[in-house]
Amino acid sequence: MQIWVDADACPKMVKEILFRAAERVRLPVTLVANRPLQTPKSRYIRSLVVTAGFDVADETIVEQLLPGDLVITADIPLAALVIDKGGHALNPRGELYSEDSIRERLAMRNLMDELRGSGIDTGGPAPFSQQDRKAFANQLDRFLANRLS
Fold first, then answer.
1. Which of 1, 63, 131, 137 is the most exposed place for a label (fewest CB within 10 A)?
2. Which value, to the nearest 10 degrees, does the dihedral of the CA atoms of residues 60, 33, 40, 90 take?
3. SS3 of 49, please?
């Protein structure tokens, strides 16, 4: 098993949690982004820089993903592709997507896109909080404990 991170928009606090988890459980973590990222020196942590472009990082993750791998992403279409390929997807706010929840999220995302396209202001996500950080850390710990035991 490996952890893939859709790293361009991933909060710094989440990356730090992942770096500690990689060392603690000796699990490879790969951050995929379209720009160089700073990562701690570790045999378990690497950064993969992809060319800039629409969904290039997402496509790279899906191409390299193996069934059972975990992907950290807030990107709903990417999470759906990951689940379809037999992987697991965890939102940086701590929601572990399932086949059912990702379908609901895709439908909601599409509705919001339509509303924004018609000029309706739908707002954006709330700022990333300490509660989000804690929810992510707890969900990651539960996931790893279940998969590595």
1. 63
2. -70
3. strand
Predicted TM-score (pTM) of this structure: 0.89
The first and second tokens of residue 137, run together, are 């850390």
Q: What is residue 54's three-state secondary structure?
A: coil
Return per-residue pLDDT of the chain as tens, 149 residues.
999 999 988 999 999 999 999 999 999 999 999 999 999 999 999 999 999 888 899 999 999 999 999 999 999 999 999 999 999 999 999 999 998 888 888 777 776 677 677 787 767 678 899 999 999 999 999 999 998 87
How far, CA to CA in Å, does 61 sit from each of 50, 70, 82, 103, 140? 10, 10, 9, 20, 19
